[in-house]
Amino acid sequence: MKTWSEVAEVQPLASKIITNSIRKDRISHAYLLQGERGTGKEAIALLLAKRLFCDINKTSVEPCHECNACKRITSGNHPDVHWIEPEGQSIKIEQIKNLQKEFTYSGLESSQKVYVIQGADTLTLNAANRILKFLEEPSKQTTAIMLTENSQSIISTIRSRCQVVDLQPLNPASFQKQLVEKGMTQDNAALMSALTNNFDDAFTWSGDDWFATARKIVVQLVEMFSTNKEDIFLYIHNYWVTHFKERSGQEQGLDLLLLAFKDILYYHIGNKDTMVFFNPQDELLGKSAMTFSQEKLVFILNAILQAKRKVKQNVHPTLVIEQLTLQIQR
């Protein structure tokens, strides 16, 4: 999305809120953009930053994308636009201290400065408290843009000092249709539309060896719950833990496990048309349906969602998958 008009097609409310602020010259000192992956958080942050620095379209809501400032923001090389991303599992206090140090200096090319915090929900408590100094003492020349998929993990003192902009999930059926139109198989498109709203991610994963292995691990794990329970923890440590190393991978593994157990529930209730992980003819569905009752499957789905929340809260991932395994076996 390179224009506010394009943003309006998928996020009409967010586009209206921000463009109205631009037109009235009432841009907030801090925004909190909250929404699922692929809903346009980074694109909106980029557009807003370009609009603030654009050398040409100073009276329009749309940045030109062609001036020196716009091009450098696109490439991540503008000296007065700072992007902060998690280092490992979290954004640490040292990163915020470095950001504060940068802001003690005057803007290199203007009085305007922008900082974007990606994964704002991963701020450690010390880092979150440190960032409050910027938010509590706003400057007209400073704009903060905070991005999160998990707004409940943002401390209330930060939320109260930001203009919160909710980004709506994209329609999975519409996204699936677009993937098929761009050449993806129907089966892959169904799975990808259940996992992401991002075109680049969808096509990358559909041809990625790591993703193919991840899916295979999930299938084998589900099968072991029905046929080989005594070796599950050995399998978890030998395959799951070694494959899903980064937090993003751990979350994706749990997403795949969630979809697998959803399909088993759909098989139970005869709703095969909505399956996305398994082929409706897969023999494993029948075996799993014999192992798990509908009531148990609902319990498992809730347990997986709780496991995802724990991973986002930086609970040790090995402990999370071990506890989840015990809950499924119970």
TrEMBL record:
<dbReference type="InterPro" id="IPR050238">
    <property type="entry name" value="DNA_Rep/Repair_Clamp_Loader"/>
</dbReference>
<dbReference type="InterPro" id="IPR027417">
    <property type="entry name" value="P-loop_NTPase"/>
</dbReference>
<keyword id="KW-0548">Nucleotidyltransferase</keyword>
<dbReference type="Pfam" id="PF13177">
    <property type="entry name" value="DNA_pol3_delta2"/>
</dbReference>
<protein>
    <submittedName>
        <fullName>DNA polymerase III subunit delta</fullName>
        <ecNumber>2.7.7.7</ecNumber>
    </submittedName>
</protein>
<keyword id="KW-0808">Transferase</keyword>
<dbReference type="InterPro" id="IPR004622">
    <property type="entry name" value="DNA_pol_HolB"/>
</dbReference>
<dbReference type="GO" id="GO:0003887">
    <property type="term" value="F:DNA-directed DNA polymerase activity"/>
</dbReference>
